[in-house]
Amino acid sequence: MKLTVVGGTGLIGSQVVQKLTAAGHEAVPAALSTGVDLLTGKGLDQALEGADVVVNVSNSPTFDEASLDFFRTTMTNLLAAGQRAGVRHQVVLSIVGVDQVPELDYYRAKTLQEDLLRQGPTPYSIVRATQFFEFMDAVLSWTSDDTTVRLPGTRIQPMAAADVVDAVVDVATGTPLQGIRNVAGPDVFALDDLGRVTLAAQQDNRNVVRDDGAGMFAAVSGDVLIAGPDAHLAPTHYQDWMQSAR
Length: 246
Known about the structure:
By secondary structure, the chain is an alpha/beta fold.
């Protein structure tokens, strides 16, 4: 098949392109660096020409209210270009529990993206993944100083980016789901406990303090970021990933 991977030069997209190519498909990365501007639509028709599937793993440059306009505009442009090109399957990467955290602008924006996809003209699939292992250092940096890291006790079920890639490729090369596939890591952590595990592995002596008002994930209540019983669980454990990532 020919698949156009929108956001195909980023952390997930570049690996999706590699995996699809290795499997014998024609995978075309579409990004600003390849001449495609999702916000204006420039280059989209050329990037989607002859494509059977569009895999959208693009991301907003910000996590604030501006992300709503980003996903509204880019999804609208992508669906229209896909219809012109005769695309048979549109796939979007989203987030487990995304529609249950309206307090977060970014999650509301991703929910809008999903809604636009559902209402669009093309058969679709949504892959909802949990938080990536690779983002843990950034999460630690949001609420830290030289001696202390403050994190809420939010329960998360993170997974390796490589496992996210496998899930996206599997869905993109299959029959449209006309729905959602949830994917998650094998283990559930309280975020502050995961911070302690991470710092210990990095031989970082800073102290982790539970602060349920600290950082972006403070807005999350209950277990909404935990995958349900229908989720596909990835094989990679966080501790194993940390050892291999060193």
